[in-house]
Amino acid sequence: MLLAASFSLCQSAASPEVLKDLAPTGSCAPPYLGKAVLAQPDAGTGQAEGHYADLAMELGRRLGVPVDWSYQAGQGVFDAVKDGAWDVSWSRSSR
Length: 95
Prior knowledge:
single chain, two-stranded antiparallel ribbon, mainly alpha, 35% helix, D-Maltodextrin-Binding Protein, domain 2
């Protein structure tokens, strides 16, 4: 499903199916991890910045939805996804 969603993001507008999967609340809601290497608030604007934030902002732009940084990740991050507090995230992998 994720691969299909990724391909469809190359199109000009996201399909309703992709929006339902990646932005079910009408916004792209990644958990704000609070790790400076991933995303941190800009001192001047307070907006999230960093490569994790860049990915979220680009996904939101391509989906045509705002990015909601309201979920502050911490204890219970996996339970929070079940409750709809956040709905999209990235992870790095290594060999």
